[in-house]
Amino acid sequence: MCKCNQQHVFWSMFNKKELPCRSFCRTLMGNSYAGQLRSARFEEVLHNSIEASLRSNTLVPRPVFSQLYLETEQSFGRAENEDEDDEDGSESNSPPIPYQMKPPPEGCCTTDGFCQAGKDLRLSSLASDALDVPAGFMLVGVKSPSLPDNLLVCAVDHRFLPDERGRNALLGFSGNCMGCGEKGFRYFTEFSNHINLKLSTQPKKQKHLRYHLYRNKQGMLVKGAPICWRVNDGRIRPIRPTLSESSLSSHEQPPSAALTSRTAVAGSHVEQPTTDGAHTLINGNHGAPSSAQLHVNQPGRSSAAAPHANAGPPKKRHKGWSPDLSANSLQDSSVKSPPASLSLSTLSVSSVVTNGNRSEIPSLQSSSQASAAIFSPPQLSVIVPDQLLHTCRLQPVIFKGHGPLPQLTGNVRDILVSSLLHSCYLSSQTLPRVYQHYGPSPIQPLSTEMQILLTIYYLVQLGPEQVPLVEDLEQIFMRSWRESHLSEIRQFQQPQTPAVQGRHYNLETPVPLPGHLQHISLQSHQTLTSSQLPWLAQLAASSSGEGVVVLGEDVRSLAQGLHQTFSRLMEGKLQNTNYVVIIVTTPGHETQSCVVVTGKHQCRALSESMFSPSEGLKEINLQLSSGVAEELIHFCKSLGSDGDIDNLLESIPTNSNEALPLSRNQECPEEAMSSPRKEPCPKDSQSSKDEVSSKESKDTCSEYSAEWREVRPIQLAVARKLLSHVCAIADSSTQNLDLGSFDRISFLILVPPSEVTFQQTVFHLRNSGVLQDLVSSDQECMSKLEAEEYVVKMDKQAQARIDHLTQEAHRNPYTLYILVHDHAHWDISSSSCSSPDGGLGLVDLLLNSQQVKDAANILILHVTSFPFALQTQCTRVSPYNEIHWPPAFSNDVDLYHERTRYFGVSELLETTRSGGCLPLMRYDSSFESMSSALEERFPKLHSAVIRTMVLIQHYCMALVAVSGRISSSHNLHKHTSVETMEIMQALLTAAQQCPSHHGHMVLLRIPSLALAEWAHRRLCRVRKQLDLEDCFEIILGNPSQTLTIRQHFTNQIKTWLKDQDCDWVPHTYLELEALPCILILSGAEPLGESLPRSLKYCDLRVISCSYLHRTTLEQELGLAAYLVKAESRPLHKPGPGSDVIESDPEKLSSTDNEEEEAQENGDSVLQSTQPGPVGCQKSAAECVPAQSTTSPNVQKGAFDALPSPSKAQAQPQPSSQSFPHAPTAPPNQAQAPISHQIHPKSTSSDSSSPRASSPHQNCSWARGVGRPPSVLLPRALYDIITVSDSSGLPRCTSFLPHIYVAWASSFRPLLSKMMTCTEQSLYYRQWTVPQPNHMDSSNRTEGRSDNFHPRRLLLSGPPQVGKTGAYLHFLGILSRMLIRLMEVDIYDEEDINYSVQAESVQFHPPNAPWPKTDVIKRMPFDYIIHDAKYDDISSIYCPGFKPVGERNPVRQEDVYLRRRTSRIKLSKYAAYNTYHHCEQCHQYLGFNPRYQIYESTLHAFTFTHLLLGEDIQLYFIIPKSKEHYFSFSQQGGQLESMRLPLASEQNPDCIKTPIFTPTTGRHEHGLFNLYHAMDGASHLHILVVKEYEMAVYKKYWPNHIMLVLPTIFNGAGIGAAHFLIKELSYHNLELERSRRLEGGSPADVWPFIILADDSCVMWNAVDLDARSGPVEHAVSLKQVLQHMEACPELAHYGLCGIRKWSSRGLKGSKRWEPFFRGHLYDFLLLNVDRSQNVQYDQNRFTCHDVDFTLRLHSAGLIVCRFNNFSVMKKQITIGGYRTFIIKTKMTDVPTSVGPSQYICAPDSKHLFLATPAQLLLEKYLQHTSQKLFPLSIKNYANPVLSVDCYLNLGPEVTVCFMSSRPHSVNISTTGLLFSGLLLCFADAFVTSAFLKKFTFLKGATLCVISADRSSLRQTVGRLELEEEWRFRLSDEFQTANAKEDRPLFFLTGKHI
Questions:
Q1: Whole-prediction pTM value?
Q2: DSSP class of 40
Q3: Which helix (H) or strand (E) holds 951?
Q4: Residue 541 in 3-state DSSP?
Q5: Quick one: which H or E segment has residue 622?
Q6: Distance between CA 1098 and CA 1089 in Å, rounded?
Q7: Cβ–Cβ contacts within 10 Å for residue 141, how many?
Q8: φ, ψ for residue 1287 (rounded to 5)?
Q9: 3-class SS of residue 1269
Q10: What is the mean predicted confidence (pLDDT) over 1392-1415?
């Protein structure tokens, strides 16, 4: 025996005969074989295959090429993976590893085509310019990736360029910029940065210096010869212009003649050239190249290896550069005709091929003769025999292969011709571009001979009923090519980091093949000659018997081969042959080939797949209307008396109470089909039946419930995810969406033209509450008409609605309009291509219009379950704007706690692999057998007509059988199937078992409307004859018509819903919950209709198997998607073949039908230990194995009985199965007649479910409401989608995504099971391109491949999962967010510390505009603090005040948490932070991309102050636009002063008072934008910032004047800022007076300044004339200030302010005092002239304003508050002067340090704190007052005497403020005993005599505070404190600061 293949030959399969294998092979092959094929491996495999063929009698041995090319070998797995990992980037939409380019200098130009100096470098711009080229330099064209159709001009030293032979180029670079003239670039990297190449790979001169430039005769600079660079291995890589570039433009491309040949392979596809000039092949009609193109592009290897222009790889490999560049790369995406090369983007056959649907754009012809003539030479022709179709009962399909086809004449209507296989050959010969640029590279495409051999093997592998798929053949070609050149491919590889493995989907990703064979790689590539091809082909086909016939040895031309094929067909010699392969090998000529499909099933499938979906429906309508289908109907009637349904119905005795049937119902079905019409509604005259139902209503079922309003947690999460994406767009630097400028939203939901979908969306919208939020209505539900205004069907009337919306958007720029495009995959056709397949192109016409695109307030949201239809290389949606439905479960953990689990397409497929259980998705073998027999008998009829008639015949027979009206003598089961019997039995028995007649829905999907109408009439007639009209409803689902059901069933639903509305009728399928019915859903595709949870059977046996696209298949399967109770579903334990990953269910998304209510009612009955779905028991050959304990005679579907839970749990169940077996029936039930077995449907409710104890367990609907429906599929479709590829995903996922999408390359990988939705998106964005009739095909911009719409989002999620509810909730929360953006949290606190005995004196009239000085002086000063923010500080003693109750001490750190706020909408006079940037504010803010950032100048200013002890240097940052507010010296421009107006000046558009706002930590959130608050008035606003924050404030507020505090104030508090502002203002006042006097002007300079908090947001004025009492309304800050500035006696006041707003401030006040004399806060008008002797305490951190007001009043200055105005303060929890963190010096991390640790004994080893000493002292006194002043706790009558300052001693201590200054204003202290004395930095005015005026309690506490220990002792001695106070050494303390931080010291003592 020959030991050729010792490892992989399965000898057990064949007879063990010893043959002289090797000698036989030599004899067979001849001497030429030994000389040609030298591979030992090839020879061994060939010998083994021959020997196996000879030994085999019945089994089919493995052909030789299955071992060579088509099997998977493990030994090469790792090497291939390593090769694949090398390609870590590609020029596609998958993000490569970016090359780290040097960032451009700040302020330089970064525009493509310009250098960094801003000079134009484009050849088109410099063509006519005179350029200065230095000697020795040459002008060179640089190729920029971002400018594919242009060159950049530069000058390069010729020594660094190669000569014409690619030699003599020096290493390095030397070049000049021809734009700005900069010279001396020595590195190409540096030069590429300068000219803004913006590369993602390492810059290489070999890659980007592409062409020589020269002057033509006209003196224009034009592109010359390409630069010929030399590659590493010594080969020269010339770059020659392609055919299209040299001779043909996009308008000169020779048109390709149209073909009538339609697609020959269902669901197949080849690559699409990416040029726009390419023609389109849809549904098999694809163009052939012109004769010139065919002459240039022969499919041999020589032409395939031709170099490709403009795509040479770099000299070295770098990460981020991929050898398999995308077909639509930047270099090849320009609009040009295809070049002559056979490269991926230069395919000579200018075609775009889609999956299963190919059509020619120029023209469509119906004659195959014309199509054949295109390929044939005029001298050759073949006569098609007459009566070919009639004789053979098939229509042969001819696949053009290699070479031209002969002209077909004669009866050409009986054949079909397709060039699909030819296009597949061409695409497989197109190498990835990286391998084409190496000239005579050893890497060659597959030869013609190898393609033919692989094709034959593939045809041999197909089963007798299988149809060839081009996807499979392409993958076979790719695998074979890769393995034959594995060693050569490796040299272009480099290792890839683990972080990016599997993330870039390039060429080298493993491509799985049909996987039941092992893989044996070639050790070296082979060379097959044409002389060897015929007998090798016959050898490969020999294992198929007669399945594949090869004509090659005696055939001299294709015409001869076709003639022989036609002759054999007419003679009946090819009855068992499916494919005839014709091979012509003539010496000296190219090999020619073609394939003739002769299998009946294959011919029918291929011929029908050549119709587009709309053409297929037209063909069906034509056959029905022309009466062609009558022969089939008559044949069905002739099957015998049992098969004639009309005779059976006539034999049924007529019920006397039944009305006579209408004549229309008695007419022949074929006549009814020819004139379809609507069935009239039956009369409601069945009173007897109504009476029966009314009697039964007393015993009703309590299980029914239908709620659709609840938003599930996962929907809320998706809505928030959408909102976050919208906010991300708004927050981006592109400013494409300004959310801050919108005050409301409006929306329009676009749905497909389905009336049910429209009503369904309106229904959800009404119940979502979104409309109530929009109109602020209190109605529970808006009216239906109001809701319909927000939903529009995408029909011809939609344009007016959308035009109206765009006009509204233009008129209302402050309204955000949202266009929700639901079911977005439905109409993606281009408006410029009128194609009936994808709709009318309205989406492209309306949503992609320029008006919508340019509207800044229109946001588009696409919602779909098929995002891959929109994810192409030209998509308009950014990958960052995609929102994918999140997985609800991760490792069986419910992430959203909603107790539901999604059951979709993946789970349906999983049930087919669950072993012994009956799968939920299956096919009906009986139906398939009957349909196949009729299809062979009627070859002219469309299969949809045949299958529909057979299916309806089955339903009618099953209905008759189940009804029991026919005697058992009739053998009805022969004319129906067990599956159909089960469906009808479950439909009828479910309603009978429930007291309320709840039942199930059966979905019957019939795409053809004409067939659906016929089926509806036929079923209605049978139902009427059987007197079952009130048992179940039959509904015709016509997308263009409203839902109509009989009144009897409407009344039933109203009873269940307890709806009292007499006019209510159901409008959606969701409202048919629990209604027993058959829904016949028509239409070419589902249009988003949601189905109720009562759907039990989804019958898809009639859907077409011809259009194998992922979108088409998954949206049909998505009709059965379901939400089941999570606790009822078995734990997911997928088997080895499972394609479902529970942690990521989003990886297999499908259609767009919404049912967010599916989890509401009913527990699922799917328990791992309970019986599961009941179905048909099939043989082992037809279905999965049945349960071993079931009798072989049992017919499933006959049982609905359920054993007790204990018994059910005792039944053994395989733990690895996701779905349980059907219950085992007792023998007596198994033998019962099927028509009498009416039992409850098997259920298993959880013991904890309330339904387990329900008294109505007979309600089949209630038990099965949580069970997914069963799905019945055509056998062909079932076989396709249930097969998994090597990645574990279903076979259908590798199909073309959509009919309008094409693959970018045949050298693409398959989808991986581990891909997330984001990675799937990147995959489709890289590997698919839109066809010309796709709406995104026009989305190409010169120089850009990512032309994304900035305001376009894409929401994707599986079907029936709740996307409608999610986006409706998103609209609601977006509306509320916009309202919230217009609202702010305002401190709303009621004044505190008001005495019960309020003063009743009215000092001013209520309407007094200004205060009078003499009256104000008579008003008593109110020492009490009324601001609620100071609720936690020490109260100030005031005679006559009696505190009410006790205050709870609150820590100051908790102020933000406890303060009361209110949400207030911003008025038009509000102040804003940096996030507000409306159009009016652009110039005010000085920061916008359309404006140049304002230039600012830093000016130093020096002044001297005694308290500071030295000269202080301040800095002003003054923008150029604000310099007029300052005066500068004439020499040097030194800042001299800030200009102040005169007090006498009056300007209604100007504010005289400068506004100072000290701020820290609030550069983003501070309210510094006063443009709207000032109502456009001119004003001077100065921000006072700390030095370390200067840069960040300048960045955010470039047009604001800033005063920078000195460095010593970086750690200071608010007191220092106010101190410096006040003193600087007084110093500036003096300077201005001097300047005015020197200029001869009066010196009455305006002496006031405004000190405003950075959280003041709005201002209000009191209206006293309102009817309901005083009310407040918003006013501008301009009005407030101008009113205060106009006060006649304002100069007499030292400090003025306004009231703080409170919602209860005006309530309950019997009198209104317009002015108040007391403490002022937050917004102050300060007279710096009068208050020059009273300074703010620069050391203070807290209560500085209380301290300043007390000292100002004691100095005799008038303090006045204008009560007619109020200020609103916004709650800003970020930054501010109150946010100081106490931390230790040992670490910067904040630590928990108690107040007792803020001080320590002097000279002690204590933990020092990195906190200012003053802050430590204030915090210590605030929190430890009970220790310092124990007698003062809650002792208002005996306060602590505080001299010259106010310090917070805690809320339980009362402080009495006294001023030691002469002539100061103090309260009378006669008879007042003090409980303590506080002396803080006592100056010379405090004397011992002054202190002796006061009396203290015995034991009162003294606290003396000084800056150091010596001054502390001096103070004690100077004030003679030791006479009355006792001190101890242990009573001296210091703050916990280091010496260098200057701690404060204080001494305590007790009064003697």
A1: 0.66
A2: H
A3: helix 943-963
A4: helix
A5: helix 613-625
A6: 14
A7: 22
A8: -80, -5
A9: coil
A10: 81
Integer Cα distance of 1581 and 1573 in angstroms: 12
Q: What residue has token string 């007390």? A: 1750
3-state secondary structure of 1183: coil
Phi and psi at 395, nearest 5°, equal -115, 100
Q: Are 584 and 555 in contact (CB under 8 A)?
A: yes
Residue-wise pLDDT for 840-863, tens only, equals: 788 988 888 989 988 999 999 999
Tokens standing for residue 1289: 């995903």
Q: Taking each helix axis from N to C terminus, what angle separates 21-29 and 40-55, rounded to the nearest 10 degrees?
A: 100
**Nearest-CA neighbor of 959 among 988, 1001, 925, 997?**
988
Task: Determine the Cα–Cα distance for residues 1134 and 1106; give it in Å rounded to an integer.
Answer: 31
Q: H-helix or E-strand containing 34?
A: helix 31-36
Contact 1390, 1702 (CB under 8 A): yes
- DSSP letter string over 1479-1500? GGGHHHHT--TTSPPPPEEEEE
Give me the helices (H) in 1227-1362, please.
1227-1230, 1260-1264, 1275-1281, 1317-1327
- Mean of the pLDDT values across residues 1588-1615? 93
Mean pLDDT across 430-445: 60
What is the distance between the alpha carbons of residues 1540 and 1534, in angstroms, rounded to a whole number?
A: 18
Nearest to 984 by CA among 946, 1016, 1028: 1028
> For the CA atoms of 1310, 1316, 1319, 1323, what is the dihedral angle to 10 degrees?
30
CA distance 1235 to 1230: 12
Around Cβ 302, how many Cβ atoms within 10 Å?
A: 8
User: How far apart are the C-alpha atoms of 669 and 666, rounded to whole Å?
Assistant: 9
The partner residues of 237 in beta bridges, in order of sequence, read 229
Coil, strand, or helix at residue 954?
helix
For the chain, what's the residue count? 1952
Would you report the helix, strand and coil content of the chain in percent, each value rounded to 5?
Answer: 30, 15, 50
How do strand 1461-1465 and strand 1383-1387 relate by DSSP bridges? antiparallel
Q: Tens digits of per-residue pLDDT, 60-84?
A: 444 444 444 444 333 333 333 433 3
Q: Spell out the residues 6+ positions from residue 1409 whose beta carbon is closer than 8 angstroms to its own.
A: 1683, 1764
Place of tokens 């059977």: 1097
| Span 375-419, pLDDT tens digits | 444 447 899 999 898 888 899 999 999 999 999 999 999 999 998
Q: Please report the DSSP string for 1732-1799 in residue order.
A: TT----TT-SSSHHHHHHHHHHHTT-EEEEEEEEEEEEB---S--TT-----BSS-SS-----GGGGE
Tens-digit pLDDT profile for residues 178-194: 988 898 898 888 898 89
With left for phi above 0 and alpha for psi between -120 and 50, is residue 357 left, alpha or beta? beta
Q: Which helix (H) or strand (E) segment is 1826 a member of?
A: helix 1825-1828
Per-residue pLDDT tens for 1132-1165?
433 333 333 333 333 333 333 333 333 333 333 3
Residue 814's φ and ψ, nearest 5 degrees, are: -100, 10
DSSP 1010-1047: HHHHHHHHHHHHHHHHTT-TTT-EEEEE-TTS-----H
- 1739-1768 pLDDT, tens digit per residue, is 999 999 999 999 999 999 999 999 999 999
Cα distance between the two ends of the chain = 126
What pLDDT digit, counting tens, does each position of 132-167 carry? Answer: 899 889 999 998 888 888 889 999 998 888 887 777
How high is the pLDDT of residue 1873? 95
- pLDDT for 797: 84
Q: Which of 595, 567, 599 is nearest to 385 (CA)?
A: 567
Amino acid at 63: P
Beta strands in 341-428 (DSSP E): 381-384, 397-402, 407-410, 416-418
pLDDT digits (tens, 9 = 90+) for 975-1027: 899 999 999 999 999 888 888 889 999 999 999 999 999 999 999 999 999 98
92-96, 104-108, 1777-1781, 1867-1871: which range is least confident on average?
92-96
Binning pLDDT at 50, 70 and 90, where does residue 916 land?
A: low
**Closest alpha carbon to 461 in 741, 62, 792:** 62
